[in-house]
Write a structure and sequence with these properties.
The chain has 6 helices and 13 strands. It is of the alpha/beta class.
């Protein structure tokens, strides 16, 4: 498959917590515009894998390339004009290959939707969605709130803009979380069991929303 068709290319990805090996040599290619589903038992490493892709959790070793650029892998230093791999005690050294600004831009493109929503309880719905636009994209507050309202409209929650998360149902909270994720116009959405705490009817509504987002061209990986 040509590299230009890939959003992610993952090779020999490993993640350990001390002596507990959670990911052990994962290889995967994720094609642009696709929907990839990750299925497995509780504790199998599905959430850890998503967090590694978003670099919220740093892998132990391996490589992750996003749109042809390696964002995590073996580190190197420049020596006599050439890049030389870094080794420590006979072992290769791995790490994130993005500077802080680049990392923020990367996470804008690779958005996360969590099972437990992770909304700011002390902020109203409108602020939850607009905050990233203001803080990261430096959009003026009035314009950011206008954009946020548009995304809330798309998930059917424009009338909840001034409400606080505590007054929302689980399905409404998840739709707010999705609106927040897509407000930065990401090319990819990583969804970690987004319907795990929802009833059957609400699950159907959320999945229809993901289908619509995929039809609009977004790549989706969903646990």
């Amino acid at each position: 498959m040509p590299a230009t068709n890939l959003v992610f290319s993952i090779h020999n990805l490993k993640k350990s917590f001390k002596n507990l090996v959670v990911l052990n040599g994962i290889d995967a290619d994720i094609k642009k515009g696709s929907v990839t589903t990750i299925i497995g038992p509780s504790g199998g490493g599905k959430s850890t894998f998503l967090r590694c892709l978003n670099l919220l959790g740093e892998p132990t070793s391996g490589s992750i390339s996003f749109e042809g650029k390696e964002v995590y892998g073996q580190l190197a230093k420049t020596k006599k004009g050439q890049e030389v791999p870094v080794w420590k005690k006979g072992n290769p050294v791995y790490g994130v290959k993005l500077k802080e600004k680049e990392l923020n831009q990367y996470r804008e493109q690779v958005a996360m939707v969590f099972q437990s929503f992770h909304l700011f309880a002390h902020l109203d719905v409108l602020t939850n969605v607009s905050l990233g636009l203001i803080k990261l994209k430096k959009v003026e507050k009035e314009e950011a709130e206008k954009e946020a309202l548009n995304y809330l409209r798309r998930v059917g929650l424009e009338n909840k803009a001034k409400d606080y998360p505590s007054s929302l149902s689980g399905g409404q909270k998840q739709r707010v979380a999705i609106a927040r994720a897509i407000a930065n116009k990401p090319s990819m959405i990583l969804a970690d069991e987004p319907t795990g705490a929802l009833d059957t009817e609400t699950t159907g509504e959320i999945m229809k929303l993901f289908i619509e987002l995929n039809k609009q061209g977004r790549t989706i990986v969903i646990v």
